[in-house]
Amino acid sequence: MKLKVLPPTLRKNNRYLTVEIKSFSPISKDDLVTIVWDGCVRLQGELNTSNFNLWVMKFYEMDKTHEYFEYTAIVRCQRGFVDEVRSALALVNMYKNNRIAITTIGLSGTIKASRKYI
To answer: What whole-number distance in Å separates Cα of residue 17 and Cα of residue 49?
Structure first.
């Protein structure tokens, strides 16, 4: 039996954050997933973080400039929890004993629209 697709009125509304990551050591998409989840759990707790519907959709590696590595990513979260996710990501400053900075550079309702910030 084939499952039916939910109609748009019953789906969760998502927002897509375009974030810029600067790190002194190279990181991968899996590392970014760990960073995002740990940052949100530390600030909001497990109960609130489970409502965020977090997911790293895209991960782009930019050029290595000066002394640090630069990346851009698109992170999905549920509408209504954008401010909590942004604040949790802004407070992350260390990963595996290396300094890291995460800045939100854009917010949109679709992945296609969030690519214009890259």
So the answer is: 16
